[in-house]
UniProtKB/TrEMBL annotation:
This is SDR family oxidoreductase. Residues 9-131 form the NAD(P)-binding domain. It comes from the Bacteria. Pfam families: NAD_binding_10. Signal peptide: none annotated.
Length: 248
C-alpha cells in the first residue's frame, strides 16, 4: 500500500491542484485545513495538529497566510518530528532570504524551521503565482490612473507548473533545497498591467511611481527574481490571461 501523505493547505490555490495529482499517482492523501479538509487543525496554535500528522510518512506543507507562517512551520515541524515523518516537503518563495519585507521574513523563518527540524526535507522556492499577480493588477487597474512602480520586475509562474514540480519532489527522496522555479518570462510591472488591460479590452493611463526604501532597492536590483540555474514553468502570463480573463 502506498504511504500516507499529509497535505497542509490542501484546499488552497496550489493544494486543489496538488492533491488530485498525488491521488492519481496512487497515494493516500490526508488534507489538513481549517475547514473543508479531511482533518481540521490550527497550525498557529497547534490545536489538533499532532493527531493530524500521526501516521503520515510524508508531509507536504502548502498552507500559508499574510503573516506568522514561521509560527505555523515551527508547530508543524515539531509535530512531524514527534510523529517520525520521513520526508517533509515545503513550498517557499524566491527571494525569501533577500527581500526586506515582513512577509518574506516570515517565509525565511519558516524555511529555517524546516531546515532545523531534524526531519529529512525538500524545499522549493517558487516565483509569485499568476493568480496572485492577477489580484494585484486587478486592484491597480480599478483606479482612473494606474500607479506603476518603476524598475519592478516579476517572473510569474503558473500554479499548475508549480504543482507538477512539487509532486515530483514530494514523491522523491528528500533532496534539500531544489532549484528555483519561475515563469518562462520576466515582466516589468507596466507590462503586466498592460497585458491585463488588453485582455479585458480596456485602457487606463499609467503613472510611473518610485517604490521607496530598502524594499524598493531590493526589487530594482532583482532580488525577487530566480537565481542562476532555476527551472522554468511553461505557461506564460499571456496564456494565463487568455484562460482566466479574456474567456471570462
Amino acid at each position: 500500500m502506498a504511504s500516507l501523505i499529509l497535505v497542509t493547505g490542501g484546499t488552497g490555490t496550489l493544494g486543489r491542484i496538488v492533491v488530485p495529482l498525488l491521488r492519481s499517482a496512487g497515494h493516500e492523501v490526508r488534507v489538513l485545513a481549517r475547514r473543508g479538509g479531511d482533518v481540521t487543525a490550527d497550525l498557529l496554535t497547534g490545536d489538533g495538529l499532532q493527531p493530524a500528522v500521526d501516521g503520515a510518512e510524508t508531509v507536504l506543507h502548502l498552507a500559508g497566510g499574510p503573516k506568522d507562517d514561521d509560527v505555523a512551520a515551527r508547530n508543524l515541524t515539531a509535530a512531524a518530528a514527534r510523529a517520525g515523518v520521513r520526508h517533509l516537503a515545503h513550498i517557499s518563495v524566491i527571494g525569501a532570504d533577500r527581500v526586506p519585507l515582513a512577509w518574506f521574513r516570515y517565509q525565511r523563518d519558516a524555511e529555517r524551521a524546516v531546515m532545523d527540524s531534524g526531519v529529512p526535507w525538500t524545499m522549493l522556492r517558487a516565483a509569485q503565482f499568476h493568480d496572485l499577480v492577477l489580484k494585484a493588477v486587478t486592484q491597480l487597474a480599478r483606479l482612473p490612473v494606474v500607479p506603476v512602480p518603476g524598475g519592478l520586475r516579476f517572473e510569474p509562474v503558473d500554479a499548475r507548473d508549480v504543482a507538477a514540480r512539487l509532486v515530483d519532489l514530494t514523491l522523491g527522496a528528500p533532496s534539500g533545497l531544489a532549484p528555483d522555479l519561475a515563469g518562462p518570462k520576466v515582466y516589468g510591472m507596466r507590462e503586466l498591467v498592460r497585458g491585463y488591460l488588453e485582455a479585458r479590452g480596456g485602457r487606463r493611463p499609467m503613472l510611473p511611481v518610485r517604490m521607496p526604501g530598502r524594499a524598493g532597492r531590493a526589487y530594482r536590483a532583482g532580488d525577487n527574481l530566480a537565481l542562476e540555474g532555476a527551472e522554468r514553468g511553461r505557461r506564460t502570463w499571456e496564456e494565463f490571461l487568455a484562460e482566466r480573463v479574456t474567456s471570462a
